[in-house]
Amino acid sequence: MQVYKFGGASVKDADGVRNLSHIVSINRGQDLLIVVSAMGKTTNALELLTKAYFNGSANLNTLFHEVRDFHYEIIKNLFPTENDPIYDDVGNTLIEIEWMLEDEPHPDYNFNYDQIVSIGELLSSRIVNAYLNSQSINSKWLDARSFIQTDNTYREGEVNWEKTCLSIQSTIPKLISGKVLVTQGFIGGTSENYTTTLGREGSDYSAAIFASCLNVESLTIWKDVPGVLNADPKLFTDTIKYTELPYSEALEMSFYGASIIHPKTIKPLKNLNIALFVKPFLHPLESGTVINQSAKIIKDQPAVILKLNQVLISFSKKDFSFISENHLSDIFKVFSSGNVKINMMQNSALSFSVCFDWDEEKFNYLKNFLSAEFKIKYNQDLQLLTVRHPNKKILASLSSGKTILLEQISRNTAQLVIKKVE
Ligand code: ASP
Ligand code: MG
User: Fold this and answer.
1) Residue 233, C-beta contacts closer than 8 angstroms, at least 6 positions apart
2) How far apart are CA 246 and CA 35, in angstroms?
3) What does residue 384 show for φ and ψ, rounded to 5 degrees?
4) Ligand 1 pocket by C-beta < 6 Å: which residues?
5) Among 152, 182, 216, which residue terminates a domain?
6) Which atom of ligand 1 is nearest to the CA of 205?
7) Whose CA is nearest to atom 7 of ligand 1?
8) Alpha-carbon span 356 to 378, nearest angstrom
9) Whose C-alpha lies nearest to ligand 1, atom 8?
10) 8 CA to centre of ligand 1 in angstroms
11) Which atom of ligand 1 is found nearest the CA of 202?
12) Residue 128's CATH number
């Protein structure tokens, strides 16, 4: 049995769905579970819709129609017969949003978010499943919310592994024989049957959960790149592809912000030694990158990861006292309760500095809770450059001409917080 995951950039249009079907057909004959994300930029569009709904904005209908029209365009292209049942399926899925929009929003923004944004994955999986069947591939649609069980932390659902694996193991092996199963990434369900999401870009994680509970041979993530590259080709030229990577290295790279794989994906796979293939969606016969236990790190191919839109915040005591462990503990508590993920940190006698992804709400939360005790300084619109297995040459070339606000070099990793070049 194998699990395939297709992201939104792959299923962004009708041709993407056709290509997915082509990949499935060339790998015919094996039990296959397919996990799909929302199509193209649908998640972003549904995020805007949720905001508009919550804030009572006037453009609510326009935003909804954009999402609706985008999906109808795709199905019109894929299913020329107008009475194909997919038109009703898509219509019924969209009606769920319309009903929600007619009601008053729930006071918890994140709850609304998950009920609305999850529709993106429900739509894409319906369309993919119907298209596979139209191509004579025996395929069945599954609702991931009845398998991926989470707590009710909306937008960051915490997976209950025991319950999740039990329901996956008791149902999927029976269903899958001789079939393709299609389900959604990113979404889960609570014990009260509300929908949750697992955090942005969480479909990889969903695929790893299914792969791990089913103890499959391998998980393949199909991407719009040739495999795992040593840098983002949109930001750097002369990138190279890794043929193989150990789990640990892939995990470090994703932790530092390489957007290739969601950071939570690796652990469940490593625990069961399930190989993770990252393969090019448009060239399915190419080998891509394999991530497994036995791969070697190639230290003369440093990975360069650039994270944009960073903020560097520094805390110092108002009375000129040292930053003690007690103060650090106060600061960390607020970072933890505000769910702020630290990308880099450094302390000196009088200050403690942290770099994290800019998020206005989270930033204000920190300021509210910490400005009584600490003097706070910050810089916005920064970049965080991380280099794995750095050498002098690469560091010199990457930092040349840049203003560096904070720098840290350890045995295997160099990190620089830099001002954006205008
Ligand atoms: N559609 C979701 C997102 O864009 C999940 C995913 O793509 O993995 O964040
Ligand atoms: Mg996506």
Assistant:
1) 225, 239
2) 24
3) -115, 120
4) 7-8, 37-38, 43, 120, 185-186, 200-203
5) 216
6) 8
7) 201
8) 11
9) 201
10) 7
11) 8
12) 3.40.1160.10
For every residue of 373-412, DSSP letters joined together read TEEEEEEEEEEEEEEES--HHHHHHHHTTPPEEEEEE-SS
- Nearest bound ligand to the CA of residue 197: 1
Range of the domain at 110: 2-216
Q: Extract long-range pairs of 51-60: CB within 8 Å, 24+ residues apart.
A: 53/100, 53/101, 53/105, 53/112, 53/116, 54/105, 54/109, 54/112, 60/101
- Pairing relation of β-strands 374-388 and 413-419? antiparallel
Residue 223 resides in a domain: no
Tell me the backbone φ, ψ of residue 235, rounded to 5 degrees: -110, -25
Residue of the nearest CA to atom 5 in ligand 1? 201
Render pLDDT for 240-288 as a digit per residue (tens, 0 to 9): 999 999 999 999 999 998 888 999 999 999 999 999 999 999 999 999 9
Is the overall model pTM greater than 0.85, yes or no? Answer: yes
Q: What is the pLDDT of residues 54-74, one digit of tens each?
A: 999 999 999 999 999 999 999
